[in-house]
């Protein structure tokens, strides 16, 4: 039985996909429920096994079902999903404008719940033949080889209008700067134009990305802490520039649907996944 995990993409796909992620379970494995932290990514999901139930945020009822192909994102809320016996999934997490470069679909119309079911179904139709080809292959390496070749031919180049914005994307990691103002000044665009360009081609604004990256850093630090009652919450509030405890809890509820203590319990139980990119 092949194992799941992360697989590297072809060098020519750097900046389009962060990696391939594979989930494969044996027929005798138990059903398990996992929680993926929000990452603002668009994800194309191929399912070659039994249907997968999933939901978002604090909704643990898992009201949606993935049969063969689905598109999720931009992932603003925690993704809750059930992995049944004989599960066989291959996930493509897109980076920045990678999704746009494949599907040429504007992302500025999607709200915090992500892509609508009808829009996701419409985009999924474009890769039905690809799903059939992948489903006919047994081994993960063979599937990835096919995907690499397909994507290298199908992906369009990043337009000249977006390149200057992406060239200065690193400014979002400097908490002393306003990335919108910096990028606008360096690209001779208005601040509104910068925001609109990002929303269209990437799916979220720079302001939203800055807020998320702060939360992601906080989440990464908390995930490495032991599950105890001795967490220095005040120190974390100061370190990550939150106004107060309610501000920190508000971000937790917004992105994950749970409180910091509830997250620590999920993390301690081993059912919470945090992206490394």
TrEMBL record:
InterPro entries assigned: HTH_AraC
The UniProt record lists the keyword DNA-binding: yes
PROSITE patterns attached to this UniProt entry: HTH_ARAC_FAMILY_2
Protein's name according to its UniProt entry: AraC-like DNA-binding protein
UniProt entry tagged with the keyword Lipid metabolism: no
GO MF term list: DNA-binding transcription factor activity; sequence-specific DNA binding
All residue ranges annotated as the HTH araC/xylS-type domain in the record: 180-266
Keyword terms, alphabetized: DNA-binding
Organism expressing this protein natively: Chitinophaga skermanii
